[in-house]
Amino acid sequence: MAHYAFITNGIVTEVITGIDESETIEGLDTETWYGNFRGQLCKRTSYNNNIRFNYAGVGMTYDEGRDAFIAPKVNCHAEEILDEATCRWTCSNAEHDKKLPTN
Question: What is the pTM of this model?
Answer without folding.
Answer: 0.85
